[in-house]
Amino acid sequence: MSLLVKDIASVLLEAEKSKQAISPLTQQYSDLNVEDAYQIQLEVIKKKLSEGRTIIGKKVGLTSTAMQKMLGVDEPDYGHLLDDMRVEDGGRVKVSDMLSPKVEAEIGFILKEDLKGPKVTFLDVLMATEYIVPTLEIIDSRIADWKIGLVDTVADNGSSAKVVVGTKLTKIDGLDLRSLGMVLYNNGELISTGAGAAALGHPAHAIAWLANKLNEFDMTLKAGELILPGALHAAVTVKEGDSFSAHFGPLGSVSVKFE
Predict the structure, then answer these.
(1) Model pLDDT for residues 57-116, shown as the tens digit of each residue
(2) For position 166, which CATH number holds?
């Protein structure tokens, strides 16, 4: 299996570079399981790190019922965030740099302490959080037409592409993130709403899940990392000329322009 893992990782890397999508891995390799998929993801990240990129955080995906229904899965997944994925608030992103991008609004967590599973709790996450920050995750799939199952998206680094990070950093003390609302606009038109509870009932639950899942691979969520706990709404397809902004009440807002 180790040789197959390397081969599939190479195919995914080439798809990302060439902007040529591939057919679902689950169609090509019917015996692939989720554990194999995480090994493929780690091989992809290993290759990117060898090329000089650095890890700036992690993302949890498929935490909302809306996203699980959209993709036909019943559990979360995770991916890595790398330095070249970061986009400044109000920045511009070229649609042509991706294959089929979508955008999601999320409440980002910036850690002040490491979190290591297997017994990380909701409260551990709250205590280890330095700030929360408004973010827009731009997801993309190297799998053609988003015809993905859990194995496909896990192998493809959780369908990660970019993350737009807001400038306002907010202490978590006294905030009820379950009921914290979000409104998403595209070109000035309201297109989606959500609340923190969409991410496994509370974003901190999603991050606890991630810390405990990573323990299976002897990995730790590290102080200073940006952790995305999952979308608060169904992902929205992006096209050239779109201008998205997400507003999170007391957390402030974050925006990005696509060209």
Answers:
(1) 999 988 877 667 766 777 789 999 999 999 999 999 999 999 999 999 999 999 999 999
(2) 3.90.850.10
Q: Rounded CA gap, 77 and 152, in Å?
A: 11
User: Which helix (H) or strand (E) segment is 44 a member of?
Assistant: helix 34-50
Tokens 């007391």 correspond to: 250
Of 179, 186, 236, 239, residue with least CA distance to 203 = 179
CA distance 7 to 44: 10
Q: Two tokens at 117?
A: 């599973």
Locate 130 and state its tokens. 């330095």
Domain that holds residue 120: 2-258
Whether this model's pTM surpasses 0.85 = yes
Structural domains in the chain (count): 1
If one counts every other C-beta atom within 10 angstroms of the C-beta of residue 180, the result is 20
- Beta partners for 88? 165
Residue 189 burial (CB < 10 Å; 0-12/13-18/19+)? exposed
Q: What is the pLDDT of residues 167-209, one digit of tens each?
A: 999 999 989 999 999 999 999 999 999 999 998 899 999 999 9
Candidates 248, 250, 227, 245; CA nearest to 90 is: 245
| CA dihedral over 186, 91, 157, 115, signed as positive or negative | negative
Q: Each residue of 122-172: pLDDT tens digit?
A: 999 999 999 999 999 999 999 999 998 889 999 999 999 999 999 999 999
